[in-house]
Amino acid sequence: MRIILFGAPGVGKGTQAALLAQRFGIPHISTGDMLRAAMQSGSELGRKAKEYVESGGLVPDEVVIGIVRDVLASDACRSGFILDGFPRTTAQAEALHRIFAELKINDVQVVSLDVAEDEIVRRLLLRGRADDTEQTIRHRLQVYADATAPVKAFYAGKVPVREVPGMGTVEDIQQRIVAAVA
Ligand code: AP5
Ligand code: MG
C-alpha cells in the first residue's frame, strides 16, 4: 500500500496516517513530525527549519525533498508507506515523481481529505501545538491555498486521486479511506 495523504492543515492527515500505518504495517512518513523532531534535537536540519515551521511558512523544497528521498529509498519502505504532509508544492510533487521512477514505484494513490475551514480552525485551536495560534493557522491555510492545493491538479490523470470527506468521527473517516484504497 503506497498512499499520499493530502489535505489542508488540520484535516486529520496525521491521525489517519497513524491508523493506516498500524493497519497495513507500513511506515508513516510525516515531514512535519520529522522537522519538529529535528528542531527538538537541535540538529542542523532543525535549525534550518525552525523559522519556517514556527511562522507556518514552508521549509525550502530542497531540504524536505532530500529527507523524503532518503526515507523512501530505505528498506523500511520497501513494502509500502504513507506520506503525510509531502508533497506540498508542485516542485516537491515533480521531485517525488522522479524518486518514484528511480525506485520503480508505480502503484501510488492519493487520498485527499476535505474538511470545512471553521472545523479545521476549531480542531487546531483545541490541539494547541506551537504553530496552532489563530494567526499562524490563518497563515498555514493561506499557504495551503496558494502553494499546496495546486498539487492536486498535478496528480489528476497521473495517479488515482480518492476524494474522502474528512468530517465525522476518526473511525468513520478511517473506514472511508480503507474502502477508497481497497
Ligand atoms: P505539518 O506537521 O504537516 O502540519 P499541517 O499540514 O499544518 O497539518 P497538521 O499536522 O496541523 O494537521 P493534520 O492534517 O495532520 O491533522 P491532525 O491529524 O493532526 O507541517 C507543519 C509545518 O512543517 C509546516 O507549516 C511547514 O513549516 C513544515 N513542513 C512540513 N512538511 C513540509 C513540506 N513538505 N514542505 C515544506 N514545509 C513543510 O488533526 C488535527 C487535530 O484534530 C488533532 O488534535 C486531532 O486529534 C484532531 N482530529 C483529527 N481527526 C479528527 C476528527 N475526525 N474529529 C475531531 N477532531 C479530529
Ligand atoms: Mg499532521
Task: Walk me through the topology.
Blueprint: E1 2-6, H1 13-24, E2 28-30, H2 31-41, H3 44-55, H4 61-72, E3 81-84, H5 90-102, E4 108-114, H6 117-127, H7 134-148, H8 151-155, E5 161-165, H9 170-181
Parallel strand pairs: 1-3, 1-4, 2-3, 4-5
Helix pairs in contact: 1-9, 2-3, 4-5
The structure holds BIS(adenosine)-5'-pentaphosphate and magnesium ion.
State the helix count. 9
Cα-based radius of gyration, to the nearest Å = 16 Å
Q: Can you give the mean pLDDT?
A: 97
Which regions have little confidence, pLDDT < 50, spanning 5+ residues? none
Which compounds are bound in this model?
A: BIS(adenosine)-5'-pentaphosphate, magnesium ion
What percent of residues adopt helix (DSSP H or I)?
Answer: 55-70%
Report the sheet with the most strands, covering strand number, pairing sense and barrel closure.
5 strands, parallel
Written account of the structure:
The protein has 182 residues and is an alpha/beta fold. The chain has nine helices and five strands. It has a five-stranded parallel β-sheet, with helices on both faces. The longest helix has 15 residues, at 134-148. The model has no long low-confidence stretch (mean pLDDT 97). Magnesium ion binds next to helix 1. The site of magnesium ion (MG) has 5 residues, from helix 1.
